[in-house]
Amino acid sequence: MSRHLISAADLSLADAMAILDTAEELAHLAERPIPKLPTLRGRTVVNLFYEDSTRTRISFEAAAKRLSADVINFSAKGSSVAKGESLKDTALTLQAMGADAVVIRHGASGAPHRLADWVRGSVINAGDGTHEHPTQALLDAFTIRRRLGRLGGLRVAIVGDIVHSRVARSNVWLLRTLGASVTVVGPPTLLPLAVGSWPCEVSYNLSAVLPDCDVVMMLRVQQERLTDAYFPSIREYSRRYGLDADRVRLLPDHAIVMHPGPMNRGVEIAAAVADSARSTVVEQVTNGVAVRMAVLYLLLGGQPAERAQPAQPQAQALEPASSGAAR
């Protein structure tokens, strides 16, 4: 793998599979009495968040701590950023403190790329503007594989506010790399102008797409980013592009429903659907820790998935080999 994880498009099939396979091994760690590994002991991971976050920040913090790394949580609010400090000066400060990895969420698309030029450690993109969110796409792929047993050949619909969605962009690129076919669905006003160059199909009719879907991924309407009238009203949007009980009946029996959160219940997804057996919303949060552990593990010098095992107890490790034992 590369030293950084900035874009899902940068991941080869081998890279993506290495992360998913390592996450599968690490997911079993939560079942242990003490769910920790000493793998990153002595390493420092900085969570550098310029935008509010709950799931992603806590998930990265839990992932780093389960690998025994030291974690520094940096919030733009209440820091020198509020006094006008630039991203570069903040980066140089973190570098001087010995950060081995910086997990960054920033409102400006491309901020992680710039950060990677200024720090010697690894940079992990936790969401930049409307650009990408690669670890969300990885945890989504991990969840799909766990639920449906495969990724190759699956048909995935990503529905909603595509133009503002970094999750959609990362999922389109990653799922295509992993062999799935993707259709993005939404009103024309919420589809980016460049969507024709993406490796996916485009549809404006949700009900027409659902019967052929293995996975339907609903996206939040990002009202905080909607500066213009992208649709007549929330009610009209929900009527045409919301996933309610009637539309769920159009899905094949095995199909699953996903959402990266936070959800606008009653807008893009009905409460009954979000809480149904098809829904993977809670699983996605759980799986996010294992996937982010795998990313940190591999970027900071870990071994392939089959070596991602807890260290043997010291007493056992120091026992002399018996006569004739293979070493």
In terms of topology, how is this protein built?
Layout: H1 13-27, E1 44-49, H2 55-66, E2 70-75, H3 87-96, E3 101-106, H4 111-118, E4 122-128, H5 134-148, E5 155-159, H6 166-177, E6 181-185, E7 201-203, H7 206-209, E8 215-218, H8 234-241, H9 245-248, E9 256-258, H10 271-274, H11 281-299, H12 314-317
Parallel strand pairs: 1-2, 1-3, 3-4, 5-6, 5-8, 6-7, 8-9
Helix pairs in contact: 1-5, 1-11, 2-11, 3-4, 5-6, 5-11
List keywords for this structure.
327 residues, Rossmann fold, 2 domains, five-stranded parallel β-sheet, four-stranded parallel β-sheet, 12 helices, 9 strands, disordered C terminus
Radius of gyration using CA atoms only: 21 Å
Largest sheet: 5 strands, parallel
Helix fraction bin: 25-40%
Backbone structural class: alpha/beta
Q: Between the first and last Cα atoms, what is the distance in angstroms?
A: 30 Å
In what range is the share of β-strand residues?
5-15%
Report on the structure:
This protein is α/β, with parallel strands linked by helices and 327 residues long. The protein has two domains: 8-133 and 284-309, Rossmann fold, CATH 3.40.50; 134-280, Rossmann fold (3-Layer(aba) Sandwich). Helix content is 35%, strand content 14%. It contains twelve helices and nine strands. The chain has helices at residues 13-27, 55-66, 87-96, 111-118, 134-148, 166-177, 206-209, 234-241, 245-248, 271-274, 281-299, 314-317, and strands at residues 44-49, 70-75, 101-106, 122-128, 155-159, 181-185, 201-203, 215-218, 256-258. It has a five-stranded parallel β-sheet with strand order 7-6-5-8-9, with helices on one face. Strand 5 (155-159), helix 6 and strand 6 (181-185) form a beta-alpha-beta unit. The protein is globular, with a radius of gyration of 21 Å. The model is unreliable at 304-327 (pLDDT under 50).
